[in-house]
Amino acid sequence: MSSQFLWYIPNEVSPGHRGDDVGDDHNSLDTLAGHARALEDSGFSGALIGTGWGRPDTFTVASALAARTTTFEPLVAIRPGYWRPANFASAAATLDHLSEGRLRINIVSGKDHLEAYGDTDGVQADRYERTREFIELTRKLWTEEDVTYRGKHFTVEDSTVVPRIRRRGGRLHPTIYFGGASASAEKVAAQQADVQLFWGEPLDDIAERIDRLRDLENAEGRELPPLEFGLRVTTVVRDTSAEAWRDAQARVEEMAQQQTRTDATRRVGYNPHRKNAVGQQRLYDLAARGDVLDDNLYTAPGRVGGGGAGSTWIVGSAEEVAKTLQRYEDLGITHFVLSDTPYRDEIRRQGRQLLPLLRR
């Protein structure tokens, strides 16, 4: 299977996300659509659009961008608990129909401001069991008619979603991406996800997780096609290695200064639960093993306020970053969600310098 390359589009209320350009129109439709069209022009398949309470609604943003583009594929992050399966399946089927099959979905189980939209804080195992039911029922609603489902968390009676998802080649429905590093999360991925997304961990760690997930697929009696794997990571690409490391280190120094000046937890849309997630803690723990792991996986950002895909960066010239990503590809990674800031400028730079090396 040939690898697929996507980007990240921030849908934030506050400007300047992870060092992005600051402007009053940073989240206007014209600006975000400009990102999406630049991705089309640069050869990226599409982009992840993040979710969380206190941010613009992801599905609305994705729908608007799909209407302004022709090939751009939004990877829409959504949360069970914010959505109920039948409502979500219907909305997704509609957007997939209107965009002529361009929709992808990223299921997020991590907690955010649950009480703000009426969700409840359950124990981890129960939360992931709810996610498993959510994905299973959504898939049924996309592929079957007159669905009756009685689970612990969700039930439907004689439910048929319209418009029906149209089969397009081997694609039966929007690809379902899923992340999570806990035992409960990996069990859900092995049973129900199409793609398991990893953050930027060292190659040996990723290889270990892939092996474990493949064993889990067999143990859980997976009935779906084999699980695929993806990498969500920041890629700092410059003309030379020295320039890339100089810029990366300068940015980390600036992040450290900002951390001492402000309380990062107070920014609009900040998720106070993410730092306690198993996957996030794995990234923070990497810094204890060294600032640079493998050839060019930079862990220092996680020590100074970087979170999620901003915790570890792959740094170097286009050739060096491409070589590293190809080593992940050799492990079985076939979906790459890359990014760097300023987002718009880096779409063009990495589309021009990095993508041709990866596709070759």
UniProtKB/TrEMBL annotation:
Pfam families, per this entry? Bac_luciferase
SUPFAM superfamilies found in the cross-reference section:
Bacterial luciferase-like
Which GO terms fall under biological process for this protein? alkanesulfonate catabolic process
Name the keywords, alphabetized: Flavoprotein, FMN, Monooxygenase, Oxidoreductase
UniProt-listed InterPro entries: Luciferase-like_dom (IPR011251), Luciferase-like_sf (IPR036661), SsuD_RutA_monooxygenase (IPR050172)
Q: Which residues form the Luciferase-like domain?
A: 5-335
The Gene Ontology terms for molecular function here are: alkanesulfonate monooxygenase activity
Per the record, the domain of life is Bacteria
Q: What is its EC number?
A: 1.14.14.5
| Name of protein | Methanesulfonate monooxygenase
Which lineage?
A: Bacteria, Bacillati, Actinomycetota, Actinomycetes, Mycobacteriales
